[in-house]
Amino acid sequence: MDPEVLSLLNAAEHGDKAAAEPLFAALYSELRRIARRELSRHQGSVTISPTTVLHEAYLSMKGKDDNSFPDRARFMAYAARAMRTFIIDRVRERRAQKRGGLFEITSFDTEANAQSGGYEEVSEVGEALEGLAKVDPTLAEIVDLKFFCGFTFAEIAALRNISERTVQRSWERARLYLHKQIKTDLSL
Description:
It contains ten helices and no strands. It has helices spanning 3-13, 20-26, 28-41, 50-63, 72-95, 110-115, 119-135, 137-148, 153-160, 164-187. It is globular, with a radius of gyration of 18 Å.
């Protein structure tokens, strides 16, 4: 890991609130890639730029007093969670009835609508992941790193100083939990 990032992480862990800004700047390009990737998943559901998502995540992170980032993995997972939350909130706003969210324009181009994740899907995944974070924060962090950050199992293992197989088992447990939660919500 870059020594500058490591020293900024250490400073942030020891309560230096001023370290969050340069840490964010040092990891900006990687965070922007994550924002772009997450927005591409919700194509059609939200019309915002990756820069907007990234800056909103920064403002969210800066506004929190209890930020503790003992390592790069936790910082990246926290940033991904902040971006995911912002995107889900934007999708919910867009669908809000008072904003005309139930009004839909239809056209003959149904392929584009089939590819974009619907409001219900985005909302259900977000709620299930929040529930997982309450039950097992480590599993939720691995989901954030794998699914939202796009890291491989090997990269997550290196970030967390655990074996790749342990990450894979955790990923499977998290997927089972999320699938069960979403399926339960759909059957209600």
